[in-house]
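can u do me a favor
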């Protein structure tokens, strides 16, 4: 069982004789034990098992195991959203007084999380360009830096990150590289193979793929040597009094420490687990992920090529296009394709972009991407309206940018609808 296509179907769950073929939804908040000692061992982290679904649930763990296999990681957990995944991944190793180095080309929600909410918690971030040189990256580090963060393909600007460069810089400064791999999914890129230590996902996007369930996931590569940098990561390398002095990095090793701590501490205290119902729906999406990603990428490329030669379109961002500044990085990291999302600008700026969005018949206006249905959004007027114009520029999101997420409809129908909507946009802004 080696190919990703097969892991999408078979990974994570191996029913024994007479057991259900589909992953069971364990709709139970609690679990029964025969003795105080048996249950006490769980609370001491001496035995593994389930006791309360705020921390862990069998359905979630089964689906997490599939995602771990797809990413090539040692352990994984599901969270209630992609936001929770990124927060937990960072907060598991950063606290008040710590510092993060992050790519500026990241999802708007993550930008808010890091630059506003985590700043209020005393965690500072230095943002660097996704195209930063090694020297520029080095200059961003401080003695209290605890992690480097980036996105494989940025939502919505579609810049491709040089994963090896960012991972190497992180490692040379003794910290892990955390990467949000939502857009390519492991079908198109497995960041762990390029040096990433922790991979996060908004499973709400392609992994679910049907607008059915909000969710997130965190995967640990199981390679980062916490003990070698023990002074930086006391939460993993010194005793946790709330579990009778367990030292996560010693008890659970490189493979298990990060996810065990995030489950035992963060899920216990912050309670952002995915519901077993949502995990079940996510698993249905994962079963067809490889098939769907190929189709999303094929349509994305066809739409990008069509837009590129359209007279009303002034710029197209799609890493699969040869003219795209990120094409070389895409060929290295995303040889099978990038994603189904195409960003472009129409002559006429914000007004024309909004007119196009409203006229697009096949697509729906939705705060969503990476879905079976084509979705269309003008980020500056919607998801990114909290950002100032300079921040928008820095994140690669001009005010007139249209983010078009190509769904699974026939490419010819989508392209015909795009042409009609462009015509409407031209006519409206000409008057
Ligand atoms: C949507 C998204 C998130 C946030 O995920 P939610 O599931 O909406 O909380 C994080 N990162 C990226 C790249 C996203 O596209």
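np, heres the sequence
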């Amino acid at each position: 069982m080696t190919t990703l296509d097969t892991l999408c179907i078979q990974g994570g769950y191996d029913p024994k004789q007479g057991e259900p073929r589909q992953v069971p939804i364990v709709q139970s908040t609690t679990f029964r034990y025969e003795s105080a000692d048996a249950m006490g061992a769980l609370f001491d982290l001496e035995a593994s098992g389930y006791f309360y679904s705020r921390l862990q649930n069998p359905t979630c763990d089964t689906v997490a195991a599939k995602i771990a296999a797809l990413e090539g990681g040692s352990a994984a957990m599901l969270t209630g959203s992609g936001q929770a995944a990124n927060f937990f991944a960072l907060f598991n190793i950063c606290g008040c007084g710590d510092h993060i180095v992050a790519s500026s080309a990241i999802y708007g929600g993550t930008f808010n999380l890091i630059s506003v909410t985590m700043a209020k918690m005393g965690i500072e971030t230095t943002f660097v360009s996704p195209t930063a040189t090694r020297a520029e990256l080095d200059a961003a580090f401080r003695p209290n830096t605890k992690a480097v963060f980036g996105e494989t393909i940025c939502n919505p600007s579609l810049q491709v990150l040089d994963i090896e460069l960012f991972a190497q810089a992180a490692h040379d400064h003794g910290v892990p590289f955390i990467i949000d791999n939502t857009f390519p999914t492991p079908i198109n890129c497995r960041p762990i193979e390029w040096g990433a230590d922790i991979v996060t996902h908004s499973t709400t996007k392609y992994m679910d793929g049907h607008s059915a369930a909000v969710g997130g996931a965190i995967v640990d590569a199981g390679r980062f040597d916490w003990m070698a940098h023990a002074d930086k990561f006391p939460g993993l390398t010194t005793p946790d009094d709330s579990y009778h002095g367990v030292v996560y990095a010693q008890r659970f090793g490189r493979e298990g420490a990060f996810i065990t701590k995030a489950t035992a501490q963060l899920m216990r205290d912050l309670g952002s687990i995915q519901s077993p119902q949502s995990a079940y729906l996510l698993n249905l999406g994962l079963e067809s992920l490889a098939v769907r990603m190929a189709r999303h990428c094929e349509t994305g490329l066809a739409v990008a090529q069509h837009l590129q030669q359209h007279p009303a379109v002034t710029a197209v961002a799609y890493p699969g296009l040869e003219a795209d500044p990120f094409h070389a990085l895409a060929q290295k990291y995303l040889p099978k394709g990038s994603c189904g999302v195409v960003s472009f600008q129409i002559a006429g700026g914000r007004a024309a972009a909004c007119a196009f969005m409203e006229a697009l018949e096949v697509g729906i206006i939705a705060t969503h991407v990476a879905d079976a249905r084509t979705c269309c959004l003008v980020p500056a007027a919607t998801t990114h309206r909290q950002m100032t114009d300079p921040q928008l520029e820095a994140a690669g999101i001009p005010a007139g940018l249209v983010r078009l997420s190509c769904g699974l409809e026939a490419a010819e129908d989508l392209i015909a609808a795009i042409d009609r909507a462009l015509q409407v946009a031209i006519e409206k802004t000409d008057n």
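The pocket of pyridoxal-5'-phosphate is lined by residues 81-83, 107, 109-110, 151, 155, 180, 182, 202, 204-205, 214, 216 (CB under 6 Å). hope that helps!!
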